[in-house]
Amino acid sequence: MNLNQLIYFASLAQLQHVTRASEKLNIAQPSLSKAIANLEQELGVDLFEKQGRNVVLTRQGKLYLDYVEKALESLEEGRSALQRMQTELDQRIDIGFVSSLQARMMPQLLADYRKTTGSQTRFACYEGTTVTLLEQLEEGTLDLALGSEPQDSVRFGSDPVFRQELVVLTPKTPRWQAVSSLSLEQIAAQPLILHTRNTGMRKIVLDLFDEAGLKPNVAEEATEESMIASLVAMELGVAVVSLSPAVQLPTVHIVKLDHPKNYRYIHLIYLRHHYLSPAVRHFQNYVLKWAKTSSAR
């Protein structure tokens, strides 16, 4: 039994004439007759009986028609619901980003996109670590993400779009007030507040120490950079973070990281071999162009 057989059955039941039904369905009359015969054989009952040049439903056929009409109606409702859902999805973008973009960069980006393009696309914004954002991309709950470069280039595609300065946070105490910069060697001699394992920044910071042949003295760990800044303010250690409003607390001192690679790139990340709606692709292209402007750097 297949959907076509049910559609053929319902049409023939309505028109009660094989020729007219085959014309409406745009199929050959023998094909219609064979489809009905196969359906009857599968059900083990006669659905129609001849009445002159017409065919009429049998008692069993009338009973079966009630169920077929309900089934076809339900399928049509499902098709309409899918179309409504797809229309909504085509007009909505689910985007995730790391916390350092929350206060300034993301609001500016979305506002500029709306103002420049006149787009009515709705955005659903989610904050998370790079690791959790990649998981959400794979689950299909995000269309795009902004975070550290993914290590898996087979599953994920990415483009560098923003460059963020890396700085050192110290407590705002007399000891640190005259300090304007710190090297990795100096930081390694201090207790370090490090990002947790599910963050892209952890790898960036540890790679800096590893390339310099140094081992940091990790004292505490935290996921959010605002929490890291708070731990620094409590004099539990120093931290290497990306410069953003989240860490610019009045209770911490921000100094320059004395290192050639005192920056990191934020990447626009997407799942390879995954459907992107026209709205998502349009926004993706916009971000790549927007990132080249001086205001986006």
Automatic annotation (TrEMBL):
<dbReference type="GO" id="GO:0032993">
    <property type="term" value="C:protein-DNA complex"/>
</dbReference>
<dbReference type="InterPro" id="IPR036388">
    <property type="entry name" value="WH-like_DNA-bd_sf"/>
</dbReference>
<dbReference type="GO" id="GO:0003677">
    <property type="term" value="F:DNA binding"/>
</dbReference>
<feature type="domain" description="HTH lysR-type">
    <location>
        <begin position="1"/>
        <end position="58"/>
    </location>
</feature>
<dbReference type="Pfam" id="PF03466">
    <property type="entry name" value="LysR_substrate"/>
</dbReference>
<comment type="similarity">
    <text>Belongs to the LysR transcriptional regulatory family.</text>
</comment>
<keyword id="KW-0238">DNA-binding</keyword>
<protein>
    <submittedName>
        <fullName>LysR substrate binding domain protein</fullName>
    </submittedName>
</protein>
<keyword id="KW-0804">Transcription</keyword>
<dbReference type="Pfam" id="PF00126">
    <property type="entry name" value="HTH_1"/>
</dbReference>
<dbReference type="InterPro" id="IPR005119">
    <property type="entry name" value="LysR_subst-bd"/>
</dbReference>
<dbReference type="GO" id="GO:0003700">
    <property type="term" value="F:DNA-binding transcription factor activity"/>
</dbReference>
<dbReference type="InterPro" id="IPR000847">
    <property type="entry name" value="LysR_HTH_N"/>
</dbReference>
<dbReference type="InterPro" id="IPR036390">
    <property type="entry name" value="WH_DNA-bd_sf"/>
</dbReference>
<keyword id="KW-0805">Transcription regulation</keyword>
